[in-house]
Structure prediction request, 237 residues.
Amino acid sequence: MSIQQKRFNEIIQLNHHKEEVLAFIGLGSMHDLKRLDAYSDIDFFILVQSQQDKKIYMEDMSWLDVHPIIFSYIETRDGLKVMYEDGILLEFAVFTMDELKLIPFQEGTIYYKKPFIEEHDLKPQLIQSHPFDLNKTISNCLSNLYVGLLREHRGEHVAAFLMIQVFATSNLLKILDQHQDDPFVVERRIEKRLNVDYQDLYPGITHNKKAALTILNYLELNTSSYEALINKIKDML
Prediction:
């Protein structure tokens, strides 16, 4: 058993008997255990009875006191990050059952639930659909390149880097890998699925034009349209 599984089990054991704690759902590599390794954090949802319980569980970290905590903060209205002294990182959210019905999420593993809670109620009720639109994604990618190169020519190298080597590249990866296993972040585990030259895609802030040319070369393999905009981008290069 990994240290992450052991730690998560310790957290569950510390809290499962409490009346207000309804369930723990493991997500990410805590659901897909074949992805779990020494670098994984512990992703999970904890379900509690009421908004008052939620407030307490988001503000008072004593329910996680199975190992010394050195860092914690509230990241979103529902989510927190907590780090233990040994470097184990928790990334979790606190929900009531009513809230869980209203959010899209990838199905997880139910590690614990109260007997009166139905399994069905701990599975995604709202499916977040991201139908892939190839033409829109290509258009976004080309637009990212053009705007990025405008900023590069202006001397805004940081802004150009963001537009070219983050936004445009992300759109390119969606085009090349249309069945990514994480619907929220295409870059996750992309190296295992897509054989491209990442050194040329991400050459660094002083090589924005090189990155733009690499992206354009990949795009031209996938479409013969958009000739006018592609020619504009080539002029910028």
Remarks:
- The CA atoms of residues 142 and 168 lie 7 Å apart.
- The chain has two domains: 3-122, 134-236.
